[in-house]
Structures are given as C-alpha cells and as structure tokens.
Amino acid sequence: MLDYVKKMSFKKKILSSYILFIGISCLFIVIYIFKSMENAKEESYSYMYQFGEQVSMSTDVIVSNMDRIRFLHFIDDKIKHMIRCSMKDKPMEQLLDENDYIERALNHMTNMNQYVVRATIVNEFGDVYSNVQTNNDAYLEKMEEIDKEQDWTDKNKVYYTGVYQEEIYLLPFEMVTSISKMYDINQEEYIGTLYIDLNFSSIRQMLDRLAESKNARTKLMIFNGSQEVIYDSESLEEGFWGQIDDSEEKVIREFLKSSRAKAGEFTIGGKKCMAASVRNDTTGWQIMAWMPLSDIYASSWKNLVGIFSAMIMLMIAAVFLGIYLAGQISRPVMVLAKAMGEVEQGKVNLLEEEKYGWQDEMGLLFRSYNEMGKRINDSIEKIYIYQINQKQTELKMLQFQINPHFLYNTLNTISSIAALSDIEEIVKIADNLSAMFQYNIKGDDIVSVRKEIQHVKNYLEIQAIRFPGKYQFEYRISSEVEDLKMLKFLLQPLAENSLQHAFGKMKEINRITLTAWEDGDDIIFQLRDNGVGMNTEIMEKLNKELAKTDTGTLVNHVDKGIGLRNVNARIKNLYGKEYGIQIRSEEGKYTEIQIRIQVCKEILNGQKTPVKNF
Fold it and tell me: How many angstroms separate the CA atoms of 199 and 34, rounded?
C-alpha cells in the first residue's frame, strides 16, 4: 500500500487527501450528532426536573401561610373554647358575638393569602363557622363524603380535593379544598374539621404563566392524591386519561405512584415521550413535566439530513476542485524543479515571472527563488557594503561620546585647579557640573530616586552660587522612596522651568520646595514655588493640554528642549495615560507641579519597567 502511494502522481495524492479528509470529517460529525442527541435527552430530563421543582416551590408559596388558619385554635384560646361548645347551649346574643368574632378572625387569616377564598370550621357538634356567610348544604355534604373516604390515622394529614365548581356570593369559582382535622394541644381529643377553599382559577393562571415561560415543547400536568388531573397545560377537552388507552394509563399510573422524584419513558397518545415527576410533600400533588422524544430529536435529525446532503455535495465539489488545484500546483512545481536542477549544474538562471503570471504562493516561491539567485550573485558586494556601514556606525557612536567625556574630564581639571587656589565657589560649580555631565553620560534610562534628586540638587546649587542670596531651596524626601526606581531626567527640567518663569518679580524670599513620597505602587513628586503663579484660565488650559497627551506621543513632537510637555509625554509613554503632570497655581502666590509615576520594579529585556504593563 505504501509503495502504491509513493508511485501516485501529485494530482492523485491531493485528490485522495481531499476525499479522505472529508470522509473522516463526516464520520466525526455523525458521531457528534448522535452524541448530541443523547446529551439533549439528558439535558431535557434535567430541565424537566428543574421545571417540576420550580412548580413545586411555587405551590409551597401558595399554601405557605395556611398553617396559621389550621392552628387558629392554638393561637387564640378564645376561639378554641367557642368551637368546643355546642351552639344549642348558647344564648342568641352570645352566639352572634362568637360567630362575628370567629368570622373576623378567619377573614384576617384568609386575607393574608390571595389564593384562599373561604375557610370553614365544622366542630364536633356539627356547628359551622365560616368567614363567608353561606348555607350551602350541598358543599358541606360533599366535603363530608370526601372526609369519610380518607384515612385519618395520621392526625397531621392534610387532604386536597380535586377541582370542582362552587358558587360564593352568586359568583362561580373553580375550587380546590384542603381538609384537615383539628385536635387539642396534645393531639388526642378531636375538636373539629377545617375546610380551606383555594381559588384554583388564580392558581391555574400562575401555572399557565410558568408553563408559558418555559420551552414550548414541555407539557405540564399536576395530579392530586387520587391521581385526578387537576391541571393540564394542554387543556385537553376530553381529559388526559380519556386520550390514552388502558395499557398506557396503567404504565403512567404506576409511574405516578412513586413518592420520590423520578424520570421515565412511556407512550402518550401513540407518541414515545419522556417525563420527570416531582412530588409536592405539602399538598401530595404529583407534578409531571413531559415532552415527546420526537420533539427532542427533530432538530438533531434535521441537522443530520442537512449535513449528509452537504457532505455529498462537498465530496463532488472536492473531486473537481482537487483536479483543478493539483494541476495548478504541479505545473509550477515542475518548472521550479527544472530551474533548481540547473542550479545544481552551476548555473543560477533567473525565472521570467511575467511569463507565468502566478500571483499566489507559487508566484511567491518564484520570486523567492529569483531573490535567492540575486543574493548569491551579489553576496560579496553586499557583505562589503555591510561591513563599511558597520564601521561607519561604530565611528559615529564613538564621536557622540567624545565631547561629554572631554567636558567631564576638563571640569575635573578646573575643580582641581580651583581647589589648589582655594576658590570654593569654582570648586562647587565644577564638581556639580561634573556630576551632572557624568549623570548624563551614563546610559541607564532607569535610576534610583536618590540619584535623580541629587541631580536636581547639583543643578540648583549651581544656580544658588550664580545668584547668591536670591533663592532658597528646600527638600522633603521620604526615606522610603530614595531607593525606588524611576525614569531619568524628570525633575531637573521642571526645576529649571520654575527658575525661568516663576520669579519674574522677585520677592523677599524666593523659595522652591521639592517633596517626594510613596503612594501605594506610585511615587508622588511635588515641586512648589512661591513665585508669580498664573490665573485659573491659563492653569486649566495647561492641565487640559497635559491630560490630552497620548501614550504614543513622540517627545520630539512636543518641546524643542526638555520642557514641561516633554517630561509629561515621556511619563505617559512609559507609565501609561493615568500618570503624568498636574498643575495647581494661584496668581501672585504660588505654582505647584505634581508628578505621579509608578515604581519601576521589574527588568524586561534589559530595561526596567513599571509594575503594570501598558
């Protein structure tokens, strides 16, 4: 097989590769679709469980405060004594008072739950107390029949009836009634029976909203303890059980018997369905969410048919495309292989690109071959030119260093002569100027705060010697920042700027104060003078201009020298747009320049960088 592949033409190899690649891709797609169908099934089960749990919690909210009505005789001893005595033994006035008292108490309790319409107490003597004045004997007879059918061994049991029609104040209501027994405090002596009527129309509206908010394919059904359908999101006219045959009904009833949450698959109306059932422990209702499997698989099968159709068309297109591309690729390869064979014979003949006119990768390969041939022919001349350029560059770099070193050495000589002549001012100026040149010559762009402050001191001391008694300089430098790292040449240009512009009108005391402290990962410098200051309009205009400086601004595009804008641009280029210079000033009183930079802690590719990356 391997030998056969080796003997295949380039065109056949490309075509076979196309078909093999598409076939494997199709196989993986089919596997993925079938896996997706299974995942969709599992996700649907999970979705239906969650839906059932949500409905169950909503049901708990509906009946949440009904226990207050059930335990009314515990909450109010007066009511307990009233219902434990027969009406026959009470005078009319007392009877009316007690009826009014119990009615108001029941009204208060029922008003706390919007779904409760009526609460009725029938004591052991058959006396009836209700918050709704009614003599509906049919209602009481119906409740009594349902009551007799129940097993009340569990004294805490609460039974919920099915949905039925009832009129209250001549208004039709769709009702569900909870039936519970009332006992004394020790749960031993029977006191009476409590009927709490819920407006199921309101409950249905709530369930409809829940069903509508979910996936339209999901159906919701709720069964009471007798497996009667009390809610069906499909609203079947003949009823749910009337739509399925006996065998289907038997399976579903067995499914609903479980008191635990469970999932299963069965047939409903001839359709294979999957369902998840959740039991509400408060009401005993069984909440079942279900959907046909065909709805779950429909989108997957639709995608599968579409993909198969696309794969067939793609394979046909791949055959013709492979034949065409193989010809486009093999011909230039043959031309290039022939030219390379001539190179092996000692010839470097350039190819005529215009003759073939290829503009794709093969054209790029042709151009690369021609460029390679030119490089071979011109290699000696290019190497010679490169070496000359390299030497010239080295000479220029050496020239750039001659003048600063010469001045530095000359100033050291002047300092030595002045020291011998005992001229202290010249010694001081020469030493400071020499230190400034030495600071300039060093190639590091990042220095310690201590060195930058010393550079400023050297400059200001020279000015103090030049203008004796004219200026006072004060330094308030926190010891914590002296060893931190910062960008070079930030402070001296600003000090020079203050001397040039702040003291146009001299005062008795002309002071410049330099302060530095650490603020988290930042260093704050503050240069303050008591000079002429500036008005608010000029200050705001200058601050806006400084704030607008972009991080990509070239420093040779702002100031010709190293001025205020130049320093601001350098800060923003290195540290980011949130750093830079801000000015505060009051005309005739002071100007304060505040610089915020970030501590340089890391070293990257030989350069120290701020804590954050910009």
Answer: 47
Report, as an integer, the average pLDDT of 359-370. Answer: 66
Higher pLDDT, 575 or 169: 575
CB distance 514 to 474 below 8 Å: yes
Six-digit token string for 389: 């350029």
Q: What does the longest C-alpha to C-alpha distance in the chain come to?
A: 135
Phi/psi of residue 467, nearest 5 degrees: -125, 75
pLDDT digits (tens, 9 = 90+) for 249-265: 777 887 877 656 677 78
**Helix (H, G, I), strand (E, B), or coil: what is residue 292?**
strand
Stretch 23-33: mean pLDDT: 74
Local structure of residue 117 (DSSP, 8 states): E
**Cα–Cα distance measured from residue 497 to residue 492, given in angstroms and rounded to the nearest whole number:** 9
Other CB atoms closer than 10 Å to residue 210's CB: what's the count?
15
Closest CA to 51 of 236, 213, 245: 213
Bridge-based pairing state of the strands 511-519 and 522-529: antiparallel
Task: Give the type of residue at 547.
Answer: A
492 DSSP assignment: H
Burial letters for 347-371: b for 16+ Cβ neighbours within 10 Å, e otherwise? eeeebeeeeeebeeebeeebeebbe
Distances from the Cα of 288 to the Cα of 54, 61, 122, 260, 596, angstroms: 12, 19, 34, 12, 66
Q: Residue 101, class by beta-carbon neighbours within 10 Å (0-12 exposed, 13-18 middle, 19+ buried)? A: middle
d(CA 557, CA 210): 66
Q: Which two tokens stand for residue 513?
A: 């104060």
Q: Which helix (H) or strand (E) covers residue 601, if one does?
A: strand 600-604
Tokens standing for residue 601: 């802690």
Tokens of 218: 């999901």
3-state class (DSSP) for residue 172: strand
Question: Cα angle vertex 27, ends 22, 29, to 5°?
Answer: 90
Residue 119 · residue 195 · CB < 8 Å: yes
Helix, strand, or coil (residue 284): coil
Residue 77 has pLDDT above 70, yes or no: yes
| pTM for this entry | 0.46
CA 85 to CA 193: how far, in whole Å? 14
Question: 436-449 in b/e burial notation, b at 16+ Cβ within 10 A?
Answer: bbbbeeeeeeebbb
What tokens does 481 get?
């920042």
Q: Rounded CA gap, 69 and 343, in Å? A: 104
How far is residue 155's CA from residue 51's CA, in Å, rounded to a whole number?
A: 32
CB atoms within 10 A of CB 262: 15
> Tokens 């926190």 appear where?
478
What pLDDT score does 519 carry? Answer: 92
Residues 6+ apart with CB under 8 A from 349: 339, 342, 373
Question: Residue 391: pLDDT band by 50, 70, 90 thresholds?
Answer: very low
**From residue 296, how far is each of 274, 301, 346 by CA, in Å?**
10, 9, 71
